[in-house]
Design brief:
Layout: E1 8-10, H1 11-22, H2 28-38, E2 47-49, H3 50-57, H4 62-77, E3 83-85, H5 86-95, H6 101-111, E4 118-120, H7 121-131, H8 140-146
Antiparallel strand pairs: 1-2, 3-4
Length: 147
């Protein structure tokens, strides 16, 4: 859907993606309603960014989140390094045709708190918790201990 590769979904990208996925032509009003309901930024802007999309597409109850954490850990951290490198993340996101390499690099910079060039499980899960506003419900140390 991110046809411009900038990590943001504008009106035309949302319309194209929904029309294609749902095999239905949506009115401009329907698309605007989706954008208004999904855009978490205050004040709202003219696009849906990665955080907005993430928040809109996942369930945040404890059971669902622990399931997501387990799947993410199994996918990314069951390797000899127990970390995600830039290429690991790029490969995963490229397989899904989500974003371009430049956006992957910006994600890495945002998540890699210690600047090591890799994302540890703790950094990864803390980023998710912080960006979903779940700090009051989840603690990284407890999540990693359960994985």
């Amino acid at each position: 859907m991110d046809t411009y590769g900038d990590g943001k979904l504008g009106f035309d990208e949302i319309k194209y993606g929904l029309d294609l996925l749902l095999e239905h032509n949506h009115s401009d009003e329907q698309i605007q309603s989706v954008m208004t309901n999904v855009d978490c930024d205050v004040p709202a802007n003219d696009h849906i960014d990665f955080r907005d999309f993430l928040i809109a597409t996942i369930r945040t109850d404890h059971t669902s989140m622990m399931g997501y954490f387990h799947r993410a850990y199994d996918e990314f951290f069951q390797n000899d390094r127990e970390s995600i490198g830039v290429q690991d993340l790029a490969n995963q996101l490229s397989t899904c045709k989500v974003v371009k390499q430049s956006f992957v690099s910006s994600i890495m910079l945002a998540i890699d708190e210690d600047g090591s060039g890799v994302i540890t499980a703790e950094e990864f899960f803390q980023f998710i918790i912080d960006n979903l506003g779940l700090n009051h419900r989840f603690h990284v140390r407890h999540i990693v201990e359960q994985l």
